[in-house]
Design a protein that fits this description.
Helix content: 55-70%
Shape: elongated
Order of helices and strands: HHHHH
Distance between the termini: 74 Å
Structural class: mainly alpha
Number of strands: 0
Length: 142
Amino acid sequence: MADTSKPRPVYRNIHITQILSYRLPLAGIVSILHRVSGVIMFLLLPLVIWLFDTSLTSEISYERFTSAFIAGIGFVPAAIVKLAVLGLIWGYLHHFIAGVRHLWMDATHSVTVAHGRSSAVLTLAISLPLTLAFGAKLFGLY
């Protein structure tokens, strides 16, 4: 009896030179962005603590807080401060929504490829427009 079954696929780790040509599924991209957003929130934690402390200490410090978005902080211009805060906003929104996605998948045992792709699309479809809306408010578009 001859074995007529197809050979099993061999999955190997990709080399660093293949990263740009490797096509990662959307769920994988969302997973990587979930980790990146966690790192962004961790690295910007000193800024968050400073902003929170400055905004609540007194009326004078609140004026200093609001002037950071108008005049900047020290040698850092206001546009860079706003971009850092926008990065923090994106990090929080994406991390929260992707975390809810993972909790939902864990609770419902929804681990199919189709559900992974649709929930990844939903994660991006919610987090990116929310980030744009908050960014528009931050930069004074409305």
